[in-house]
Amino acid sequence: MDFVKTIGLVAHDNRKQDLIEWVRWNYKTLIQHRLVCTGTTGRLVQQTIEELMEPGDRQAHPIVQLKSGPLGGDQQMGAMIAEGKIDILIFLWDPMEPQPHDVDVKALLRIAVLYNIPVANNRSTADFIISSPLFYQQYEPVRKDYSVYLRRSIPGVDARGGIS
Ligand SMILES: O=C(CO)COP(=O)(O)O
């Protein structure tokens, strides 16, 4: 990942206040990076940044707003991670309430681990990530080699990939 990071921001309704406070606290840093958010989170993050903008501040990149989480936004975020388009994920999910799209939440968390991107699920981890020296330099997460998995034998499929 480059000096300018692409940061995914997502929060469930009971955690949106937490995320917005974190954005307020870190807004001078965040406006220098690319932000990709699920729908409602993105709208609130955009409003917060607009409120805080002072003369001379410049938002380097427009915020990308995906669909709302339950309407496919978590899946869009996961797809972007799989495509290498998200460097860091801040996802404040609600540990106290089930969500209608719990399977999508689980899929997003899984794909973030699979691609070994830094993930924060609470504010203190988000604080650690944004204050890490690694945040301010180029960094390439080590990706596991899945070639053995891709070459696995499948019943009914021959070694050259033909269906027998
Ligand atoms: O549901 C979410 C994450 O699972 C967040 O979606 P919104 O940002 O659209 O509220």
Q: Report the β-strand fraction as a percent range.
A: 5-15%
Output the CATH class name: Alpha Beta
Report, as a whole number of angstroms, the end-to-end distance.
43 Å
Radius of gyration: 18 Å
Structural features, described:
This protein is of the alpha/beta class. It has one domain: Methylglyoxal synthase-like domain (Rossmann fold). The chain contains seven helices and five strands; from the N terminus they run βααβαβαβαβαα. A five-stranded parallel beta sheet has the order 3-2-1-4-5, with helices on both faces. Strand 2, helix 3 and strand 3 form a beta-alpha-beta unit. Helix 1 packs parallel to helix 3. It is globular and about 65 Å long. The site of 1,3-dihydroxyacetonephosphate has 12 residues, from helix 3 and helix 4. InterPro entries: Methylgl_synth, Methylglyoxal_synth_AS, MGS-like_dom, MGS-like_dom_sf. Pfam families: MGS (PF02142). Belongs to the methylglyoxal synthase family. Its EC number is 4.2.3.3.
